[in-house]
Design brief:
The protein is α/β, with parallel strands linked by helices. Its main location: membrane.
Length: 638
């Protein structure tokens, strides 16, 4: 059931009022009316019970049509006003319609009144609905503007028809893209010029055919900063399905992308460290076996040379064998450095001074087409590292950098103080050594393997592939870190972070030389390798030593228990099945506490110090070196 039409009737004549109401009702209109005759009554009715339509006479004793129109205007009400009068001419009626009246009906023609009322009510409803729509649109726009102006993401709208045009970028563009929205609106080329060239095509495609799927886009700000955004955009279409515009958001995901890249880098470094650790263990085992082989080769070559006078046929061949074995021993020592099994002699050093000395020696060999630059921080604290190994690191890296610049370039050595963050066991102050070149660089698959032993991109015969691997082992042995960054065509940088002297391990004590007893002592020789044991026995026997041989630690322990005869020294291999040479020496010294010990091996396990009255000789060794070390060991015990 519809509500009756609320009519405000401004009429002083009772008969006229009754005729107007009767006419409307006769024509089928359900009318509920309120009759007023004063301005106060009109104002009260408009305030308390706003009508649907106002019908007014032109002139009444205390009220006029102009006053009613003024009151409607003051109340800001859009209500149809219909003038019904028999005393007004057309000119006055037209004047009233110009100031707000909607129509004029003469009293002698009331048959027009109902159609006029119906028409004006319809038009008033249309205006009301339009106002509501406009109000809703205005409120929606206000909410959108409030949201857009305060949203952390960039909100944009790109129009395709009738012409391509950027219609809107929200204020967040200033924060994220570094550009005021007014600079982005208009020509799309201004926006697209900020997009990374590798991402521009995909962005343009997403605007031509939006799918709503996320799209990662890189933007370059005016200051050169790269910003990563994630775009989500949808299309706006007309009734015929034509794509009119694209609107969406750009979210700054730079922090997430950087965090992911950093996480991937850390995972890559962890995989590389694990791979290098495995390779180091493998290299250490290989080095031990090869040292035994080289010891036999070198020793027997030396014995054979001793038996051949100068000029004897075959002597030159033996000398070549001897030299090859010595070079093999040097190569194995580099493997041991990588494996961190090579004993170090760390000392407190001024890193800048070592760089200047090494650079002074190497500068002439770099060539005139290489610009050699040093950027040394004068405030560096000292570091503790084996000087010869540090010099070898500098030499290896500089030679690699020079080889990467066959057409010339710039080679830079820099030092600086850095602070490693608290996360991790190796946090604290560090001294950073950076060596950079402007050479050809490396692809990622090569850079990942740069620290692996025997890995090289040089032609055969131009390198062993042990330069960076030995540097890796040396730096790790000091508690430092070494890393490499490189891009094809952009050069390579090697960064080495070394702990300051206060954090490094102390240097192992040096053994002082003592007078020799000579070569008439009894030596307990323990070696599980038959070739090495037979060689050493011959070397010592030829020099007057009495040798008691044992093939294993258990046999050596039985000999020391079963034989009461004097044993002047224990000469033992370090790495043997079941028990190490150090453990064997400790057990024998329980009964013979003053027995001197000479350990022989390709290396000592990392971090192992030598007990008192204990010496070390590195395999492979010459007979002269063995005799000197044994005489020193026996002499120190007296």
């Amino acid at each position: 059931m519809t509500a009756p039409i609320r009519l405000l009737l401004c009429q002083d004549d009772d008969d006229d009022a009754a005729l107007i109401v009767a006419r409307l009702r006769r024509d089928g209109l359900d009318v509920a009316y309120e009759r007023v005759q004063t301005a106060e009554a009109v104002e009260s009715a408009l305030r308390l019970h706003p009508p649907d339509v106002v019908i007014s006479d032109y002139s009444m004793p205390v009220l006029t049509a102009e006053e009613v129109l003024r009151l409607l205007h003051d109340a800001a009400l859009d209500i149809p006003f219909i003038l019904v009068s028999g005393q007004i001419d057309d000119e006055r009626a037209a004047a009233l319609m110009r100031v707000g009246a909607h129509d004029f009906v003469r009293k002698d023609r009331l048959t027009r009144l109902t159609p006029v009322v119906q028409r004006e009510l319809r038009e008033a409803e249309v205006r009301r609905q339009r106002r509501q729509a406009q109000t809703a649109l205005s409120e929606s726009e206000q909410r959108f503007r409030l949201f857009a102006e305060n949203a952390p993401d960039v909100i944009f709208r790109y129009r395709l028809l009738p012409r391509a045009e950027v219609e809107y970028f929200s204020p967040a563009a200033l924060v994220i893209l570094g550009c005021h929205p007014d600079e982005l609106n208009g020509d799309p080329e201004r926006v697209l010029s900020m997009v990374d060239p590798d991402d521009r095509r995909s962005l343009e495609e997403s605007w031509r055919s939006p799918t709503g799927e996320p799209l990662v886009v890189r933007w370059r700000r005016a200051d050169g900063t790269v910003v990563w955004t994630e775009q989500r955009a949808v299309g706006i279409r007309d009734g015929r399905g034509r794509l009119l515009a694209v609107q969406g958001i750009l979210r700054d995901v730079t922090a997430q992308v950087n965090a992911r890249h950093e996480r991937e880098l850390l995972q890559q470094q962890l995989r590389q460290a694990e791979r290098l650790e495995s390779l180091g263990q493998l290299a250490g085992g290989v080095a031990h076996d090869f040292n035994n082989l080289l010891a036999v080769i070198l020793g027997h070559a030396e014995l054979a040379l001793d038996a051949l006078p100068a000029g004897t046929p075959g002597r030159a061949d033996l000398e070549c064998i001897q030299q090859a074995a010595e070079r093999g021993g040097a190569l194995i020592r580099q493997l041991l450095v990588f494996s961190r099994l090579e004993p170090s002699q760390p000392e407190v050093l001024d890193l800048n001074a070592v760089i200047e000395e090494t650079g002074h020696l190497l500068r002439p060999t770099l060539g005139e087409d290489i610009e050699f630059v040093t950027l040394l921080d004068p405030g560096l604290p000292p570091v503790r590292i084996d000087r010869s190994k540090l010099e070898q690191i500098l030499l290896n890296v500089l030679v690699n950098s020079r080889a990467a610049m066959p057409q010339g370039g710039r080679l830079t050595i820099a030092t600086a103080n850095v602070e490693v963050p608290e996360a991790g066991a190796d946090h604290g102050p560090r001294v950073r050594l950076s060596i950079s070149d402007t050479g050809c660089g490396m692809p990622p698959e090569v850079a990942e393997r740069a620290f692996e032993p025997f890995f090289t991109t040089k032609e055969q015969g131009q390198g062993t592939g042990l330069g960076l691997s030995t540097a890796y082992g040396t730096v790790k042995d000091t508690g430092g870190r070494i890393s490499l960054t490189s891009e094809p065509g952009s050069g390579t940088t090697v960064r080495i972070d070394l702990p300051t002297a206060g954090q490094a391990a102390p240097a192992p004590p040096n053994q002082a030389a003592s007078p020799s007893r000579g070569g008439d002592a009894t030596v307990l020789l323990v070696e599980d390798n038959d070739g090495v044991r037979g060689l050493v026995r011959r070397m010592l026997s030829r020099s007057g030593y009495r040798v008691i041989g044992a093939t294993a630690p258990a046999e050596a322990l039985w000999i020391t228990d079963a034989i009461d005869a004097r044993i002047d020294a224990l000469l033992t291999d370090v790495v043997m099945p079941g028990m190490s040479g150090l453990e064997l020496a400790g057990l024998i010294r329980r009964k013979r506490p003053t027995m001197p010990v000479l350990l022989m091996s390709g290396s000592l396990p990392g971090g192992v110090g030598l007990p008192p009255r204990t010496s070390f000789i590195r395999k492979p060794f010459t007979r002269a070196t063995l005799l000197d070390c044994l005489r020193d060991a026996v002499g120190n015990a007296t």
